[in-house]
Amino acid sequence: LASTNKCVLVLEYCEGGSLHHMLDNPQHVYGLQESEFLRVLTHVSAGIQYLRQENVIHRDIKPGNIMRYVTEEGLSIYKLTDFGAARNLDDSESFESLCGTEEYLHPAIYEKAVLRLPTAQSFDAKVDLWSLGVTFYHTATGQLPFQAYGGRSNRYKMFDIISQKESGVISGVQKTENGPIEWKSDLPETSPLTSGLKSIIIPLLAGLMEPNEGKMLTYDAMFRIIQKIDKKVTIKVFHYNRCEELIIYTEPNTTFAGLKDEIASLTDIPSAEQILLVGGQLLERVVDPLADVSSYPDSLKSGKVYLFQREMSEKHKLPKPKIPLFPAFPPYANIDEDARLAHKCSAQGELIKRYVERISNNQLLLLDGLMCLRIYVESRLAETKICQDFMVQLMDECGYHYDALFQLARLLRESIARQVSQGRDPFSVDIARPPAVSDHPDIQKLDLVLQDTAIREVHAKARDRIKDIQQYREALKKKIEEIKSYAAQYSDACQKENCCKKIKYHLGQISVIQSRFRRDRSVRLQMTAHDQNIHGFERTRLGDQCTRMKNILVNHCFHHLDRVFESRLHFCESLTKCLMRVNKIEKNINNVLNCQKLLTDKLLKQKTMCTTELLNWESGYASYDTAKNVASDYQYLQLSVPASQSAPMDVNVGGAASDGLYTHPRNTQGLSSQVTEGFQSMSGDARNLQEKLQALQDMLATNSMIIRGLDETSLHSSGSLPRSAEERNNDEVG
């Protein structure tokens, strides 16, 4: 002002009132909602950061000096005001003047300013940090962190509380005269903040409200923590086993694996045990597992992601909501006291309203989450049906090739035996004295092939296992249908009976009575006898409204939630067991597949051996190497052999062309063309069979090692479905 040569600080008008006024509103008596609390945290921190950049200390930070400005969009902006006690102060400077509000004062200032104890201690800029911690705690809970019984009339006990508290403790309350102090290291249950934000805020509050200057947070550390909180990405997750809606605060560059680690730190469910579902699908199939969570769609971050545990080790009891007692009205009316009690009743009603809304929402999430899990299990089971059908087709083809192998081997043996018996063996050293047919080495090799029953036995066993899988699938499908039928008997009772609307009605009645009591207090000297009678009637009605609200919460809403939670947890456990059984089916299919691959490899080796014998007899040479050396100028035959063989078998055999086979210069009589053509076709069939086996393995999407035996993954092992229909009927759901 030019007339006085003084500076005047002009602020815009904040029609939202002060933060203290907000916390006095019954809706916020137990703390601001999470989103609004974060606004206070970031906005006030930004204001303090600007003051520190200008080397200014406020010295009277409290909710009454934080104003709320409302934008056109309805959003809140919180502004730090009242700089009457502010002064310039560098980090290296100190001050001795005393100012501030005692509930928010640093212990050192409280000792000198409130208790007026002689001390030569000076104070630095860090005293504002303590005030910030108390203010943030008050905003999160609606109550002061440190309270002595009797309030300001018991200041020495208050000083003992704030000066003697241990590190990590964020509240200390004395509830009775000369009683013990209740120390707490966490926020009260009535706080609206979720467990995810609490886990971040509690260390911040403990660092700010630290009487030991060496352990207290610095301004820079506080700014970094709050800025980091402001940049975090939030994802809503419903923890099914605890019936709790979580908000996960994570870094923007966190991947899916990191998100699971964050969830594990909040829930004690290891990452490997977590099942995260959205819309009946695994979350990792909906999003890119390697992408940052910041790239996830907004509908997913604020949507319904359900968390289940693969194996439920223990069942959790649903914790009852902590409901502070409604105030007891004295038998005789007291106009001033009644207005205060009505305000408390209204605050209790707002808390009950929050609980009922949460319970109603949790009932819906329990119902929707179970359906989500069931859809996922059913989809996994349907995938095994596709694999099973393909495996049956593959088994039929394999059986055909096995039969063809033995038939062709039998024909080859008969042809060789006939030539040997007629003395037409081109490899015999003594043609005049040919060996007996049974002693001929080639006949003995073919006899080993024909006598090998392992292929047939394992193939038959694999077929039996496929039948077991099919029966097991049908039993599992029936069990899921039973779970679905039982689960349909439960519904969201609170929504059907309009509990939220009932609570709002009773809360509205309490608000009307509270307004009347405030008016009566302002005109109590002018009240007539009729007005006093009406006041007494309203006192009775107020108590009745409070009782009805509490009964709705305790005797109806929580009772139904507990009932739904217990039943849904039972069905959830049954479905997770079904999921484990689906995994067992997949493991058995993969086991049959691997056994089939082993049999196919053996078939190819047997085919190669038989083909070798055929070529040897057709060419008249004992080995491929000899044939290649002496007949390089002839046309050749290429054999296709699987890549799994230890040595390459693709061979070029020389000789004159005759129906695709080499003919020995001695014009040895060739074997039956049926045998020759059969072995030629088997090479291509075997390759096709291998390709189908590989395609099926890709479909199963497993990289597990070959299971040693079919018996190791028996479908009827411990914890599986019962064998017989009678056992299945006796088996309860779950």
Automatic annotation (TrEMBL):
<dbReference type="GO" id="GO:0005524">
    <property type="term" value="F:ATP binding"/>
</dbReference>
<dbReference type="InterPro" id="IPR011009">
    <property type="entry name" value="Kinase-like_dom_sf"/>
</dbReference>
<keyword id="KW-0547">Nucleotide-binding</keyword>
<dbReference type="GO" id="GO:0004674">
    <property type="term" value="F:protein serine/threonine kinase activity"/>
</dbReference>
<dbReference type="Pfam" id="PF00069">
    <property type="entry name" value="Pkinase"/>
</dbReference>
<keyword id="KW-0963">Cytoplasm</keyword>
<dbReference type="InterPro" id="IPR041309">
    <property type="entry name" value="TBK1_CC1"/>
</dbReference>
<dbReference type="InterPro" id="IPR000626">
    <property type="entry name" value="Ubiquitin-like_dom"/>
</dbReference>
<dbReference type="InterPro" id="IPR051180">
    <property type="entry name" value="IKK"/>
</dbReference>
<dbReference type="InterPro" id="IPR029071">
    <property type="entry name" value="Ubiquitin-like_domsf"/>
</dbReference>
<dbReference type="InterPro" id="IPR000719">
    <property type="entry name" value="Prot_kinase_dom"/>
</dbReference>
<feature type="compositionally biased region" description="Basic and acidic residues">
    <location>
        <begin position="724"/>
        <end position="734"/>
    </location>
</feature>
<dbReference type="GO" id="GO:0005737">
    <property type="term" value="C:cytoplasm"/>
</dbReference>
<protein>
    <submittedName>
        <fullName>Inhibitor of kappab kinase epsilon</fullName>
    </submittedName>
</protein>
<keyword id="KW-0175">Coiled coil</keyword>
<keyword id="KW-0067">ATP-binding</keyword>
<dbReference type="Pfam" id="PF18394">
    <property type="entry name" value="TBK1_CCD1"/>
</dbReference>
<feature type="region of interest" description="Disordered">
    <location>
        <begin position="714"/>
        <end position="734"/>
    </location>
</feature>
<keyword id="KW-0723">Serine/threonine-protein kinase</keyword>
<feature type="coiled-coil region">
    <location>
        <begin position="459"/>
        <end position="489"/>
    </location>
</feature>
<feature type="domain" description="Ubiquitin-like">
    <location>
        <begin position="231"/>
        <end position="284"/>
    </location>
</feature>
<keyword id="KW-0418">Kinase</keyword>
<feature type="domain" description="Protein kinase">
    <location>
        <begin position="1"/>
        <end position="229"/>
    </location>
</feature>
<keyword id="KW-0808">Transferase</keyword>
